[in-house]
Amino acid sequence: ALSAGIMLQPELQAIKAIYWLLLIMVTGAAAALLHIIRSTSIIVQRLRTVTILISFLGLGAALTCLQDIRNSKQWYGHYLQHADALLARIEEAPAIKERTVLLPVTIRSMEISNRWIQVKGALQLYVYRKEGMPKYKVGQTLLFPPDLLLIKSSGNPFAFDYAAYAARKGLHHQAFLPYSSIRVLEEGTIKRRSLSSLRNMLQQSIST
Questions:
Q1: Is residue 29 within a helix (H) or strand (E), and if so which, with residue range?
Q2: Can you list the residues of the chain whose pLDDT is less than 70?
Q3: Residue 82 · residue 29 · CB < 8 Å
């Protein structure tokens, strides 16, 4: 039942964690009450089993819901449509692809109407390979435009559901950008410059 709840929750995204927790409390209390009642009735025995199973199902769904980054108020996806620029950090070693370099990053801040807010969430950033592009490394801070694409499945019911696989890893968006659209910020750049000037740096790097 616990595994069933974990598998069921992604299909019921509209149900918030608080409702799953309420389900656990109600069915848990009912299961406890039914165990206190000393009865050999088949109906009571079945109700005991059903309430316990539902409790574990709700527990699995609640745990999955709480771990889903999309349920956090700080997830960048909630504010993406209003964003003007993103600040992200490279978390893992870049992966060289045939035409791109994959940078596993986490978004730390985004600019909305000349104001920077702290956000969080992982992103797959693909940079098109081209001569003269910088060498990216773990720990670098990147400034780039919010031109993100939602990770979607192919639509083929018999194909591997990459979108669901990525979602389980906390990945919901990806971006494909030329290196000219990305500004690598040296250590201390953010401290030396005001955040309001960072987008101007990005625009200058794109236009050159």
A1: helix 17-36
A2: 1-21, 23-24, 28, 31, 34, 39, 44, 56-67, 187-208
A3: no
